[in-house]
Amino acid sequence: NLGLITAFFEAYLNADYTDRGLLTKEWMKGNRVSHITRTASGANAGGGNLTDRGEGFVHDLTSLARDVATGVLARSMDLDIYNLHPAHAKRIEEIIAENKPPFSVFRDKFITMPGGLDYSRAIVVASVKEAPIGIEVIPAHVTEYLNKVLTETDHANPDPEIVDIACGRSSAPMPQRVTEEGKQDDEEKPQPSGTTAVEQGEAETMEPDATEHHQDTQPLDAQSQVNSVDAKYQELRAELHEARKNIPSKDPVDADKLLAALRGEFVDGISDPNDPKWVKGIQTRDCVYQNQPETEKTSPDMNQPEPVVQQEPEIACNVCGQTGWDNCPDCGAVMGDATYQETFDEESQVEAKENDPEEMEGAEHPHNENAGSDPHRDCSDETGEVADPVIVEDIEPGIYYGISNENYHAGPGVSKSQLDDIADTPALYLWRKNAPVDTTKTKTLDLGTAFHCRVLEPEEFSNRFIVAPEFNRRTNAGKEEEKAFLMECASTGKTVITAEEGRKIELMYQSVMALPLGQLLVESAGHAESSIYWEDPETGILCRCRPDKIIPEFHWIMDVKTTADIQRFKTAYYDYRYHVQDAFYSDGYEAQFGVQPTFVFLVASTTIECGRYPVEIFMMGEEAKLAGQQEYHRNLRTLSDCLNTDEWPAIKTLSLPRWAKEYAND
Questions:
Q1: Name one Pfam family in it (predicted).
Q2: Which CATH number characterizes residue 274's domain?
Q3: Is residue 273 located within the same domain as residue 132?
Q4: Which 8-state DSSP code applies to residue 651?
Q5: Any bridge partners for residue 127, and if so which?
Q6: Same-domain pairing of 487 and 602
Q7: Cα–Cα dist 349/473, whole Å
Q8: Do 268 and 171 share a structural domain?
Q9: What pLDDT does 63 receive?
């Protein structure tokens, strides 16, 4: 073909003389490249081969950056990586423009990687999406991670499992290469050999063949590496055995049964048959979740100090009501990205999903407080009114320190989260009380639950949680040790959290204590999880609230929240109606103590920034607080009208979101 010959000679003559050999090999293999792209170290960056991007697609550093940004966005929402929604594409461009970790770190690693442009879009997106949170803090760890997961050989036809992971259709972990002794674990998915592609240093030599980039980058001294692995393994075993010393012994329990129990299923011999959640018609903290406003988070009452196994509700999307592990397949991030929600819905610009104790009635405190063990809930407390466990059906206005979380939610009174339903659509108020709940979909741990306990009741943390040692789940021995550890923990009634979760929670707690006012709020004498009841003077409706912590000595209320982006909290508070929460709680406090309190939000980020977890303290301005008072009074009047007329409006009017209006006007 004369055209191909002409194109080849044009590319050959324009190429650097050192690249002409590689360019010729590429053309012989059918890759019609016009030039050879190299990394900063001089290695061949690849990019001339056919990938899943399609024939004729020119894959360069710009499209690589777009794929990496897609992977970052895919952490918080499910995407069709081959047919992006316009709103998703816009957010991807924003991530590129922001040029912040983890995007910048992963992009740079792919750019400096020999053959980094050879890989399919699917594996680039999936590898970034599934990378451990915070790994970008140490770039060398990113190199090690990519060295394990970039196992692809057929770049034009990526593994369907990888495609499903990238698009969010599968929750399976990324297939990884096990490098120990150069052998695969017998339970791991076999991976092709010789496909490692991570550049080990800036002195990487130039590749002799443009399509042979996936060299084994393991150190030459294999024996020293094996010895290092063995030493680390023995160290982890020692930590495991040390942790087991503090776990009471028990009869062996089948691991499959234990895991089923941890998923929320009833297992004979493990589950407590007297637990209210197994009695039909009784809803507890374990079974009410999603948008259910009366999610019950079981706390032992004053006569039952034994710890209980805690099950946390899945996070629910505020837009469509679906639940997920951190994202909504249709509406975007539940915890995380906010610009997508800004673009997609002008009515509710959800910036970042905070673990809000009063965001939903059922999630009204992700941390479960043990009422029986709290010294500030003792019946002798001068400001309390409780001598015996309170029967909430007969509740009177006042402040109570002995009401369990379960009884609080089951009792009378209107909470702020129920007023949120009234503000949305009054019929939701009834729907949340009557809709059936899928009790099988529970989550063993919400990070916010443990963090709230660590901050509000640090002395209780070790009584309710066990931090597991690290396990090598890629080996049979590691899996068996993990099962054995879980079985031994079953008898304690405590929630098991991973070593990584425990490390993160402790760092977040220490970040709070590093802030002088944060330390003062945490260490000041006060009452966690007290219940305040009062009557609204205008409507006569009984209102209730359950502050994270009140400090009567200074008349302060502290509300602890976690957020994926602490900067977005400054505007996201309005969408979550935190100004309404401030006004509602403050008026309830004043009804009891006769003083308007100072209400502060202690906000901790779950995302690392400059190697730290940011912590800030906010309070509402007078204008915001006044708007909150007006809003909740308006909601109470609406509720009063609905109760009096028994008419509950249910139909919502749909309007075009902002991004759709922009497209419609084009």
A1: DUF3799
A2: 3.90.320.10
A3: no
A4: P
A5: none
A6: yes
A7: 40
A8: no
A9: 92
User: At which residue do the structure tokens 């009047």 appear?
Assistant: 637
Number of domains the chain is built from: 2
Looking at 40-54, 512-526, 624-638, which range is the least confident one?
Answer: 40-54
Please tell me whether residues 170 and 259 are part of one structural domain. Answer: no
Residues 6 or more apart whose CB falls under 8 angstroms from that of 499 comprise 467, 468, 469, 470
Residue at token pair 């409507």: 539
Give me the residue label for tokens 């096990």.
178
- Find residue 543's DSSP bridge partners: 414, 534
Q: Which of 147, 168, 197 is the last residue of a domain?
A: 197
Q: Is 338 helix (H, G, I), strand (E, B) or coil?
A: coil
* Helices 61-74, 86-98: crossing angle, 10 deg rounding: 110
Would you state the pLDDT for residue 49? 73
Segments in 40-138 forming alpha helices (H): 61-74, 86-98, 103-112, 121-129
pLDDT at 193: 38
141, 102 contact by CB (below 8 A) = no
How many Å apart are CA 32 and CA 36, to the nearest integer? Answer: 11
Q: Same domain, yes or no, for 51 and 141?
A: yes
pLDDT tens for each residue of 110-137: 988 877 888 899 999 999 999 998 888 8
Residue 325 lies in a domain: yes
Is residue 27 situated within a structural domain? no
- pLDDT one-digit tens code per residue, 495-514: 888 888 888 888 998 999 99
Please give the Cα distance from 594 to 586 (Å, whole number): 10
* 140 CB burial (10 A radius; 0-12, 13-18, 19+): exposed
**Mean pLDDT value of segment 178-182:** 49
> For residue 325, which of 140, 208, 143, 168 has the smallest C-alpha distance?
168
Q: What is the mean pLDDT of residues 179-203?
A: 41
Q: What residues pair up with 542 in beta bridges, in sequence order?
A: 535
Tokens of 198: 């991570």
Whether residue 121 sits in one domain with residue 259: no
Same domain, 378 and 502: yes
Could you list the residue range(s) of the whole structural domain that residue 397 is in?
Answer: 255-645
Could you tell me which residues are beta bridge partners of residue 605? Answer: 563
Contact 130, 122 (CB under 8 A): no
pLDDT at 266 over 80: no
**What values do phi and psi take at 414, rounded to 5?**
-105, 130
What letter would DSSP give residue 314? P
Chain segment 371-413, per-residue pLDDT in tens: 333 333 333 333 333 334 455 567 889 998 878 877 888 888 9
Beta bridge partner(s), residue 533: 398, 544
Instruction: Count CA atoms within 13 Å of residue 616 on its CB side.
Output: 11
How much is the pLDDT for 242?
Answer: 59
| Confidence at residue 553, expressed as pLDDT on a 0 to 100 scale | 84
Does the reported pTM lie above 0.85? no
> Would residue 466 count as lying in a domain?
yes
Say yes or no: 270 and 154 in one domain: no
How wide is the angle at C-alpha 351 spanned by C-alphas 559 and 172, nearest 5°? 100
Q: What is the pairing mode between strands 531-535 and 542-545?
A: antiparallel
Residue 605: how many other CB atoms lie within 10 Å: 21
Q: What is the pLDDT of residue 365?
A: 39
Bond from prior residue into 357 cis (ω within 30 degrees of 0): no
